[in-house]
Amino acid sequence: MTTVLVVDDQALQRLGFRMLLQAQNDMTVVGEAANGSEAVRLTAELRPDVVLMDVRMPGMDGIEATRRIAESGGRSRVLVLTTFNLDEYAYEALRAGASGFFLKDARPDELVVGIRAVAAGDSVISPGLTRKLIDAYTQHALGGRGAAQERQLAQLTEREREVLVAIATGWTNTEIAENLHLAESTVKSHVGRVLMKIGARDRVQAVIFAYDAGLVRPT
């Protein structure tokens, strides 16, 4: 059973999410929070598998709440909800440690599938939207690599670097396997080693690392 904490400052939004998730036979809503402070407190108390996090809320916003939840080192993973006009907030939330994000106009079935994926340890993010976000908000970070990034990159083999670039491009494991002429099981092994060597929690963090390190440039 996947446990979910719903965080949104609008009571009707929380009710809608609760009704959708409680209707699934493999999910249960263990709590609700109306702001970031409540989200951090309830995450520590309830240890949900997934925190469904709104971005703009009174008091502590979803970005700071995500950062605190990620830094706590707990098992809970954050899935951020945003709208098209909040792309910058979504990007900052990903940097803060979120495992992905959905637009609030996503279909209910898409959101359910996304929560399941995040609970399973995967990341959920649209490759096209990822590129829009990073193209718009990371150009300031492309001036050069830091010493820590250089050390991390030096640990990667040539093949692992190719896999990292492919991840940042938005390719799935299947697409990486096809384009690099590898077995999908081999790709999964490479992805795991890449994440470990660059200190990324998931593919979303790997995308951000690749752009910050200058391996991928805005198009």
Automatic annotation (TrEMBL):
Pfam entry (one): Response_reg
Residues bearing PTM 4-aspartylphosphate: 54
Residues annotated as domain HTH luxR-type: 149-214
Entry keyword set: DNA-binding, Phosphoprotein, Transcription, Transcription regulation
PROSITE patterns per UniProt: HTH_LUXR_1 (PS00622), HTH_LUXR_2 (PS50043), RESPONSE_REGULATORY (PS50110)
Domain Response regulatory: 3-119
InterPro entries documented for this protein: CheY-like_superfamily, NreC/VraR/RcsB-like_REC, Sig_transdc_resp-reg_C-effctor, Sig_transdc_resp-reg_receiver, Tscrpt_reg_LuxR_C, WalR-like
Keyword S-adenosyl-L-methionine annotated: no
Metal-binding is among the record's keywords: no
Alphabetized PANTHER family for the sequence: TRANSCRIPTIONAL REGULATORY PROTEIN NARL-RELATED, TWO-COMPONENT RESPONSE REGULATOR
The protein, known as: Response regulator
Protein species of origin: Streptomyces vulcanius
